Amino acid sequence: MSPPMSANSFLTALLSEGLTVVQVGEWRTHNRNHMGPWGPVHGVMIHHTVTKGTASTVRICRDGYASLPGPLCHGVITKDGTVHLVGYGRANHAGLGDDDVLRAVIAEKALPPDNEANTDGNRHFYGFECENLGDGEDPWPALQLEAIEKAAAAVCRHHGWTARSVIGHLEWQPGKVDPRGFTMTSMRDRIHERLK
Predict the structure, then answer these.
(1) Apex 67 CA angle, 69 and 11, nearest 5
(2) Which residues pair with 69 in a beta bridge?
């Protein structure tokens, strides 16, 4: 069981991993904490945005939209590998997911199929939205994949977690397909190597 790191520790962890970070507005206090608790945290969740263009992607992830207010994640990882910090605390990114998956993440074991949506993921996961159309054809540049690897590793390193604490949205919530275009198994392998 881990309390969330402070916003300053989060920033430091990302920078220490060698990432380029852009701080967007008052990201440290932009959150959905009034809707429920943030923490204990157990892992990192990776998403794709179904958007194109850095400015619009960052704006949507920071502000959200009428039916889903922002922030929609903690960091937006754009095509050039930059991490844009848009919020910190509870964020609308994970939604309801499978309690069996959460137990596996906590135990750092192989993930079971996600066949339920009965557990609040916004409370328990750091979230990174990654700029991609999510159509299986939009490319994932090497710089972006490396940034996803580094960002997840930075959080895992701080908390003493292994790569098994990093999951995709598609492994958490039935019906989700993100991130599409690379496998979470391959990304966890990369994170594992980085954490060695």
Answers:
(1) 25
(2) 64
